[in-house]
Amino acid sequence: MPLTITQVDAFADKPFAGNPAAVCILPAPADEQWMQNVALEMNLSETAFLVPQKDGYDLRWFTPTVEVALCGHATVASTHVLFETGALKAGQQARFHTKSGLLTAEKHGDWIELNFPSTPPEKMEPPPGLVAALGIKNFLYCGKTKYDYFFEVEDEQVVRSLTPDFTSLRKLSVRGITVTGKSSSADFDFISRFFAPGSGIDEDPATGSAHCALGPYWKGRLGKESFTAFQASKRGAVVRVRVAGDRVILGGQAVTTLKGELQV
Fold first, then answer.
1. Which of 4, 92, 103, 175 is deepest in the core (most CB within 10 A)?
2. What are the domain boundaries of the chain?
3. How far apart are the first and last CA of the chain?
4. Which residues carry out catalysis?
5. Where are the alpha helices (DSSP H) in the chain?
């Protein structure tokens, strides 16, 4: 029997913005290599697979090359599909069992809010070759989160103008890199970009998991707990961020752009 697969633009209020993710709800657990093959076929930064359970859904995320332990935009997309299809009703909480523990999501009007673990960076020196490969001349801070390297640079213009050497980045043992700077616009508190050539994605258009580090970092820098952030990829993405103890609440919108049937 064919399986429905849905493509959703997450952290976006219109089509062709934010970050596209594929969502596939399975009737039962599937072979890991099969899921990886489907993710490669979809060729999006993430494909999410959900399996219904008594108290929610098992949720796994795959890039075209690897499985990842935490993904924000594909969780926004998954939540959007569950409400759009009627699998969840208004006021219900989405519950996801993942490699990062239990994650929950709620829908408030047009916005979906994720409750994710905080992953603040810890200061450290960058590994040899990383700064040069990113094309950063100067940085204000370098650290590492549970998953990725993390840089603050002088200002928004530096973030926007980066042109990393992805060939060099792929040679480094680095899953991903967040580069952030204070926003020059009153509409946003900070901006960022996220590069993950080591995971098969040169630049991710919108990265929820990166904001699990960005939120606590900018809380320390700006002395506040709630932010409106902009991820300055070519597609662009708006992310609401609120730090709540050891959790981070991420807000985003989502738009369905494509539905199809997976025949194999």
1. 103
2. 3-113+251-262, 122-245
3. 9
4. 46
5. 32-42, 73-84, 130-134, 156-161, 166-170, 208-222
